[in-house]
Amino acid sequence: MRPAATMSVLLSAPFDRVWEFISDARNLHLWTVDFALEPPQPRGDVFDVKTPRGTLQLAVRSDKSSGVIDFEIGTGGRVTCAPSRLLKNDDGCVYIFTQFEPADAPPGLFERLVENVKRELEILGERFGKPKGR
């Protein structure tokens, strides 16, 4: 079984505003770390994402009523899922993201990816505000 790390951030912005931003793949370059170098380009239901390691295909599978935002990423027919969820929390929301260790990951990659997600959550906190005192 591959390791996984689940992280979250409390955001003081309204759910609908945060939902529109995170679930729109065209915004990935604004908040991801070491991933989207520019706005992803739509190709039907899939987006081409220019990354430091080449172009990947990405599909966003989302359901606003449950808060599910799953990023399905891959190339050459090999796809992995990066699951996340946005939940209402009083007048704000909480964004939850799970990072799995990629199959056949070299030593240290998983730890680097976890650090990237931590920074991404900080970026979202800066954009949407963290609740005061948190």
Radius of gyration: 15 Å
How does the overall form come out from the CA principal axes?
globular
Question: Strand order across the biggest sheet?
Answer: 1-7-6-5-4-3-2
Helix/strand/pairing category: alpha+beta
CATH fourth-tier homologous superfamily? START domain
Largest sheet, in brief, is: 7 strands, antiparallel
Cα separation of the termini: 34 Å
Number of domains: 1
CATH topology heading: Alpha-D-Glucose-1,6-Bisphosphate, Chain A, domain 4
Mean pLDDT: 95
Q: Considering DSSP H and I runs of 4 or more, what fraction of the residues is helical?
A: 10-25%
CATH architecture descriptor:
2-Layer Sandwich
What is the H/E string?
A: EHHEEEEEEH
Beta-strand residue fraction = 35-45%
The helix count comes to 3
| Topology, number of strands | 7
What would you note in describing this structure?
- The chain has 134 residues and is of the alpha+beta class.
- The protein has one domain: Alpha-D-Glucose-1,6-Bisphosphate, Chain A, domain 4 (2-Layer Sandwich).
- It has three helices and seven strands, in the order E-H-H-E-E-E-E-E-E-H.
- The chain has a seven-stranded antiparallel beta sheet, covered by helices on one side.
- A hairpin with a 2-residue loop joins strand 6 and strand 7.
- It is globular and about 40 Å long.
